[in-house]
Amino acid sequence: MKRKSNHKKGSVFRQLVVSYIVFALVSVFFLYLCMFGMLMVLGGGELKNLAPYELVDEAGNVGDIHSFEQLGGWIERLDESYHVTRVYGEKKDEIMEYSMEELSEYLMTDNLVETAASASEYRGYLKAVPGPEGTTWYLMKIARSALQMSYNYNIGTDSESGKAAVLAVVSFLALFLVSCLLMSAYLSRRIKKPLQMITEGMERVRAGDSQVRLEFEAQREFAEIRDTFNIMIGKLKADEQEKKRNEEKKNRMLLEISHDIKTPVATIKSGANVLEEGLVKPEELSRYYRMIDQKAGRVNTLVNELFLLLKMEDGDYRMQYERTDLCEMTRQICADHYEEMTGCGLDFQIEIPEVPVYAEVDTREFPRVIENLLGNAARYNQTGKSAGVEVRQTGEGIRISVWDDGKAIARELEKVLFDPFVRGDRARLTSGGTGLGLAIAGKIVEKHGGKLEYARQGEKNVFTIFFKW
To answer: β-strands 386-393, 397-404: how paired?
Structure first.
């Protein structure tokens, strides 16, 4: 089941855009609501009182024109010849009869300047009411300065209209302020909550809590911060575990170093004491000297290999790369170790192509890798009869394999095989290797950008050096 915390909503930008649209629509709605209320006040509770055509019904009855009069309008009743027979309200001009052309000028919405009629100052709305004695016409007239298109009235002509306008503006501002506060509270809640949880998570991490995980739903940007934070915490935890493992390796290495140095040093010291006391027979002197030289040589080898390992682990150490024929290099190393391998009773098989295979390697350090692998094959292959080296060029890169048919390396050792002081036979014998060979080989290959891996393939222990193209 998908975790709830992994659900990603839209982006913050999208939320702000949607919120702005909603806010604009709400503001427009409030504006129209206030204008509607103002028109209701001006119309005495009915909007039709402000609509000229609604002031006269189909029977010719004139309704309440108080609101229309407040805006400076009046109504004239005309007979079939367009003569004024009656006036409702206060007439503002002196026209008492009209022609069809003059009436048409009143009905036009544009402001007329070039006309002798009062149509340049007043707008008219004409309504016909049929009757038994003929058609009666009603002409509703209002000043063009007070009435614009679509019934946009000039509300500043009297005190009552002014009060209604002020009330509408105040109401709109109040509603606008409320909507601003509500929208701000909504956005603050949507944005502040994830920010607060992220801040709290950071505070817990600063306090040393490495088990923190952020679990909340949020917009895409905050979800990305949440996921990145969780990945960072996971990496910190992994780094902490890796640091702990490295510390354990370091402690184990120090313990192994002290053990490997303590034993031969104790032997050298005891031999020197015996020689100093004159307790050794003359015929035994050479044996004691060889023993002291052998143990001193082991200590020297251990110190040199430990120094080499530390040098390989130093991030500032730089290899001296040269374009080298790996086939010729490997062939020379095999020739140098041929007697050693065959002297151990092993059938030494070499498969190296005649065609050169070039790569950028350090010609001083890289040969150590193959030499260490051959030394291990000779030292630990006590049950098999053969060992070998193979150089192969593939489409992916270059592979150099060193193998032997000895006993398989224990599975529990495979994960730590390239750690310092791990021996294939798990024995703590001074006659064995230093336990640093594979660790050094792995670091050298790593410095070259390659990989050194072990695998049991059939009846063979295979160590493979791989370089990508």
So the answer is: antiparallel
Q: By the 8 A CB rule, do 461 and 403 touch?
A: yes
Instruction: Provide φ and ψ at 63, rounded to 5°.
Output: -85, -160
Cα-based distances in Å from 411 to 60, 174, 381, 414: 110, 78, 17, 5
Strand partners, 136: 129
- Please give the structure tokens belonging to residue 115: 């006309």
Closest CA to 194 of 167, 220, 222: 222
Burial (CB count <10 Å: 0-12, 13-18, 19+), residue 433: buried
Sequence-ordered list of residues with C-beta below 8 angstroms from that of 162, at least 6 positions apart, any chain? 155, 156
Greatest distance between any 2 Cα atoms in the chain: 165
> Does the structure show a pLDDT above 60 at 453?
yes
Provide the 3-class DSSP secondary structure of residue 83.
strand
Q: What value does the mean pLDDT of the chain take?
A: 79
How far apart, in whole angstroms, are the C-alpha atoms of residue 89 and residue 66?
8
Q: Which helix (H) or strand (E) holds 97?
A: none
- Percent of residues, the chain, with pLDDT higher than 70: 77
**Could you tell me which of 89, 11, 28 has the C-alpha nearest to residue 55?**
89
Nearest alpha-carbon partner for 403 in 347, 343, 331? 347
C-alpha–C-alpha distance, residues 377 and 343, integer Å: 12
- The lowest-confidence range among 8-17, 377-386, 405-414, 453-462 is 8-17
**Amino acid of residue 158:** D
| Cβ atoms 242, 248 nearer than 8 A | no
pLDDT of residue 429: 37
Sheet containing 134-143, strands listed edge to edge, beginning at the edge strand earlier in sequence: 84-88, 74-78, 134-143, 122-131
